[in-house]
Design brief:
8-stranded parallel beta sheet; binds flavin mononucleotide; 3-stranded antiparallel beta sheet; single chain; 2 domains
C-alpha cells in the first residue's frame, strides 16, 4: 500500500483499499457486502431500488453478518422530469408487447408518473447511521450531507469528469469515486453531456487525483491485482470493482446472467438507454438491440418503470435476452468464486504485480 491507500484504509477502518462497488437491482446482496467487509475490503449495498423499510432490513442483515464497516449507495438525481407522465411511443409498447408475450406476461401499460424515492430513502439511511454512503447521478442536498456527517457517515460522490469531481469535493464529499467509461452499469454523469463524459479511467483518474484534495476511488474495468496496482500508480487511494464481484456466488443476480458475463468478451458490451432511459453499460442482447433500433426509448425514469415487469419476469426465467445485463469492459477477466476467495486472490495478485514491476 502507498501513503494514500494507507490513509484511506485507516480512515475507514478497513484492511485493504478494495471496495465492492454498489450494484442496485439485486447484485449487491447483504451477504456479498458482508463477505467483502469481513475479508477486509469495503462491502456495499446498492439500495436505489429499495423502499425505506427494505433499506433498514438490508442494513440490519449486513450488521448481523459482520461488525466491519460497509457502505450503502443511492441515486441522487434523475427524477427532475418525474411527476409529469412521459408519453410512451406506440413503437415501444409494441416492442415490449412482443417480449411480454414471449415471457407469458400480459401486454405492457404506460407507467404512471414516478416520484423521486430519494428523500424517504435518505431518512431510512440516516436512521440506520451507516458507516459509509455513496451517491451516483448527483449528490445529496447540503442539509442531508450535513446530517450524514453529523451521524458519522463517510460520504462518497461519483464523478465521470474532473469538473464533476471538483463539484462533489466542493459540496463536501469525503472521497470521490472516479467512474471510467469502462464501467458496468449506469453512468453517474450529472454535469456534462453523457456522450462527452465517456472518459477512460486511464485519462480520468490521474487528472481527477491532481484536481481534488480528497481521496479518489478508481472504478471501471478493474478486475484483478494488475488493475488495482495500475490504479494506484495513477493516483487512486482505493479501487471499486463491480463486474468482478457480480459473478461471485453471493451476488444476487440470476445464474444465467453470471454465465453471460463469464462467456462475454470486451467487444460485447455497449452503452444503452434501452432498459432504464439513462445510459448504462451492459452486454448486448435481443431487447437492447431492438429497443435501440426502435428509436422509441422513453426518458428515465419512465423507461425504467416500463421495462420492469419484463426484467423481473426475465430474471425469474433466467432469460438473458430480456434482462439488463449490466457489466463492464473487463468481462473477459471475470472469475467465478466466493467473495472471500476473490478478496484473497486480489490481495495476492497485488503483491505479485508489485514484485513484477520491481523486477
Ligand atoms: C450490475 C451493476 C449495477 C450497478 N449499480 C450501481 C448502483 O446502484 N449505484 C452506483 O453508484 N453504481 C452502480 N454500478 C456501477 C458501479 O458502482 C461501478 O462504477 C462499476 O461497476 C465499475 O465498473 P466495473 O463493473 O467494470 O468494475 C453498477 C454496476 C453494475 C455492473
Amino acid at each position: 500500500m502507498n501513503a494514500k491507500s494507507r490513509a484511506f484504509c485507516a480512515r475507514l477502518g478497513i484492511a485493504h483499499p478494495i471496495v465492492q462497488a454498489p450494484m442496485a437491482g439485486g447484485g449487491s446482496t447483504p451477504a456479498l457486502a458482508a463477505e467483502v467487509s469481513e475479508a477486509g475490503g469495503l462491502g456495499f449495498l446498492g439500495a436505489a431500488y429499495l423502499t425505506p423499510a427494505q433499506i433498514g432490513e438490508a442494513v440490519a442483515e449486513v450488521r448481523k453478518r459482520t461488525r466491519k464497516p460497509f457502505g450503502v449507495n443511492l441515486f441522487c438525481g434523475g427524477f427532475e422530469r418525474a411527476g409529469a407522465a412521459e408519453p410512451v411511443a406506440p413503437a415501444m409498447l409494441a416492442l415490449l408487447a412482443r417480449h411480454h408475450a414471449a415471457l407469458g406476461l400480459p401486454p405492457p401499460e404506460a407507467p404512471s408518473p414516478q416520484s423521486d424515492p430519494a428523500p424517504a430513502q435518505f431518512e431510512a439511511l440516516l436512521a440506520a447511521r451507516v458507516p459509509v454512503f455513496s451517491s451516483t447521478f448527483g449528490f445529496p442536498a447540503p442539509d442531508i450531507v450535513a446530517r450524514m456527517k453529523a451521524a458519522g457517515t463517510f460520504v462518497i460522490g461519483t464523478a465521470t469528469t474532473v469538473e464533476e469531481g471538483k463539484r462533489l469535493a466542493a459540496a463536501g464529499a469525503d472521497a470521490i469515486q472516479a467512474q471510467g467509461a469502462e464501467a458496468g452499469g449506469h453512468r453517474g454523469t450529472f454535469a456534462a453531456p453523457f456522450e462527452r463524459a465517456m472518459i477512460g479511467l486511464m485519462a480520468l483518474l490521474p487528472a481527477l487525483a491532481d484536481a481534488v484534495e480528497v481521496p479518489v476511488i478508481a472504478s471501471g474495468g478493474i478486475m484483478d491485482g494488475r488493475g488495482i496496482v495500475a490504479a494506484e500508480a495513477l493516483g487512486a487511494a482505493a479501487v471499486a470493482l463491480g463486474t468482478a464481484f457480480l459473478v461471485c456466488e453471493e451476488a444476487g443476480v440470476p445464474d444465467a446472467y453470471k454465465t453471460a458475463i463469464l462467456r462475454a468478451a470486451e467487444d460485447e458490451t455497449t452503452l444503452t438507454r434501452a432498459f432504464s432511459g439513462r445510459p448504462a453499460r451492459g452486454i448486448v442482447n435481443a431487447f437492447l438491440e431492438e429497443a435501440e433500433a426502435s428509436g422509441a426509448i422513453a426518458p428515465f425514469p419512465t423507461q425504467n418503470a416500463l421495462t420492469r415487469p419484463m426484467r423481473n419476469a426475465a430474471a425469474k426465467a433466467g432469460d438473458v435476452e430480456r434482462l439488463s445485463l449490466w457489466a463492464g469492459q473487463g468481462v473477459r477477466l471475470a472469475r467465478r468464486m466466493k467473495a472471500a476467495e476473490l478478496m484473497r486472490v486480489l490481495v495476492k495478485e497485488i503483491e505479485e504485480s508489485r514484485r513484477a514491476l520491481a523486477s
